[in-house]
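Backbone geometry tokens:
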Amino acid sequence: MQMLYTALAMLAAYLVGSLSFGVIVSRAMGLSDPRSYGSGNPGATNVLRSGNKGAAAATLVLDALKGYVPVLLVVLYGAPWGMAQGSQGLVGLAAFVGHLWPVFFRFEGGKGVATAAGVLFALNPLLGAATLATWLIIAFFFRYSSLAALVAAVFAPFYQLLFWDFGPAVPSIIVMSLLLVWRHSANIGKLLAGTESRTGGKVRTPAVTAAPAGHHHPTQHKHSHDAAHAERKRAREQHGKGAKS
């Protein structure tokens, strides 16, 4: 029965994780769908590129809570149902996977940074704090949210193993870290190429302004003048040849 309870808790956590709050908050506040601009990621960092800090903050908090609350419920009430640390880790992983591939949003989800942080805080508050501190330090000095997320994801399992132990929830933490790094594969390429956008930058859309009717670019006038001059020159040469003959 313990496996059944764990499976049901994982299903519930996945459904909660499938609530893409970046999209929900943006729609509620009359903003564009975050999947349509910037990185295309419905996470807090990309929502911040819209210029609306309130929407970004709400997305960050809600995405973290959907990882934190399901795990916390299992931590607090799961023991009588036989759900211990292993089940807690699996429930957290399910919520994280829900964020990556949300069933309610055509499986087009985010990268899971805030949700993973919420899971870690519920599993081990000190681990969550250490991982968050790592993210903040890297983000502050380098101004790259993706780089901060990658470093924090790599360090999280090592923090657990170094300062605590290899508990039943560690495999779930490792899988989350690997998935998070994989979801940032495009960002890794941009970081190496030096084209990654920095934290807090607004989306810039190139404006194309059509020229007024009847207005021609100066270069077009120059080309037209040169062509007419060449045509007159050829006409004079042909006229000269006719006169000689």
In short: The two ends are 111 Å apart (CA to CA). Confidence is low (pLDDT under 50) at residues 204-225, 241-245.
